[in-house]
Amino acid sequence: MSPYLAAEDLSMFGHDPWWLVVIKAVFCFAFLMVTVLISIVMERKVVAWMQLRIGPNRHGPWGMLQSLADGIKLMLKEDVIVKRADKAVYVLAPIIAAIPAFMAIAVIPFGPAGNEVSIFGQRTTMQLTDLPIAMLYILAVASVGIYGIVLAGWSSGSTYPLLGGLRSCAQMISYEIAMGAAFASVFLYSGSMSTSTIVEQQTDRWYILLLPLSFVLYIVTMVGETNRAPFDMPESEGDLVGGFNTEYSSIKFAMFMLAEYVNMVTVSAVATTLFLGGWRAPWPISTFWEGANHGWWPMLWFTVKVQLLLFMFIWIRGTLPRVRYDQLMKLGWKVLIPVSLVWLMLVATVRAFRNEGYDFADIALYVGGGVLALLVLSFVVDMFREKAKQAEPPAETPAAFDPMAGGFPVPPLPGQELPPVPRRRSRSERELIVSGGPDTQSDGSLGGTTDGKEASDG
């Protein structure tokens, strides 16, 4: 095995007693739920602060129980099932959307695998479980959540929810491709798909410094994957009334909202694990405090990083306006996917050279030379293309467009232009003529004089 490939040691997982597994699973669920409650209040407070508003200030001290009050209100509202809905699928869709959002947290490490903590006298790791293909597991369960949104739109028996579900499906699938390419760059650099191993590989330097473009790509794709502003096309109020969840109410509507916020927490935890060192303490703290990455402290650093990424979600929502759907898809297919594939090829080239024993200077020379050669080739191709375009005979002038050729007005085809509209008199000119003032055009046709009395005397 190459020295640059990670040695996975997952022997510490799978030996916990059943009651400890239940406790850890309940903790993961509680962590997500509490973080969601905090995120909802934080979002309303922060956006209000950015927009110079007050925000929630009625429920609890400083309005901190507003999200809890919203949840109680949604559960007590009337639960309506529309008449034309496929009832079985209509009820199952929110569940299918919410459950996969909770499943991804199972393989996220809250602490080092080698640092066991004591829970009721039992030594265990601060992670529910880990797999050799843990990141593929996260991608798989995230993909299942798309079915809940599509089925919600289809089962409602209404046109607008169906359109919203299809748009959401196309958006999430498009952005998952670039997200997978960003993951692949981390896999190549770490030599593993295990989350605990990926964090262990960031001992000296976080991957946000080694793979900055992968981090930027993942940040953009995770905003699109969670349907958050400015990519909140599935719930764009203006053109789809509410999107795929238009016909839902009460607890089923709340489950869609819960799934969105849990997905925000999950993708933030994944970004922390892959690029921000996971549970590791930030650089200034880890240098002068040896115990910063031992005991229960790693959970604090992990939680702080997740909260900072959630704040970034809120900041983006309060700053950027919603984009059009064609701009959203163009960004996904024409920008993110090509850039992620080129970056993945570049990372793979660097890793291949490193595995062969080349030092950094040689790798930079070879990669820089390859990039320069591609730029020169692109310049030459563009130059010849421009010369060929100039050598082409000029295109024939299209015939004049007559909008009334068929007896009724028709719009112009591509390449055709409407004839110029005749100049109309301004309002001041019309008022001058009506009040008895001179009309130069009509007076000029009667002999070129503006004095009507002289004309009659002559």
TrEMBL record:
Catalytic activity: a quinone + NADH + 5 H(+)(in) = a quinol + NAD(+) + 4 H(+)(out)
Pro residues: bias regions: 409-421
InterPro entries: NADH_UbQ_OxRdtase_su1/FPO, NADH_UbQ_OxRdtase_su1_CS
EC number: 7.1.1.-
Keywords, in A-Z order: Cell membrane, Membrane, NAD, Quinone, Translocase, Transmembrane, Transmembrane helix, Ubiquinone
UniProt topology in membrane: Multi-pass membrane protein
Stored Pfam families: NADHdh
Entry annotated with the keyword DNA-binding: no
Compartments where located: Cell membrane; Membrane
Membrane spanning stretches: 18-42, 89-111, 131-154, 175-194, 206-224, 261-279, 299-319, 331-351, 363-381
Region feature (Disordered): 392-458
UniProt key word Amino-acid biosynthesis: no
Oligomer and partners: NDH-1 is composed of 14 different subunits. Subunits NuoA, H, J, K, L, M, N constitute the membrane sector of the complex.
Entry similarity comment: Belongs to the complex I subunit 1 family.
Function, as annotated: NDH-1 shuttles electrons from NADH, via FMN and iron-sulfur (Fe-S) centers, to quinones in the respiratory chain. The immediate electron acceptor for the enzyme in this species is believed to be ubiquinone. Couples the redox reaction to proton translocation (for every two electrons transferred, four hydrogen ions are translocated across the cytoplasmic membrane), and thus conserves the redox energy in a proton gradient. This subunit may bind ubiquinone.
Protein name stated in the entry: NADH-quinone oxidoreductase subunit H
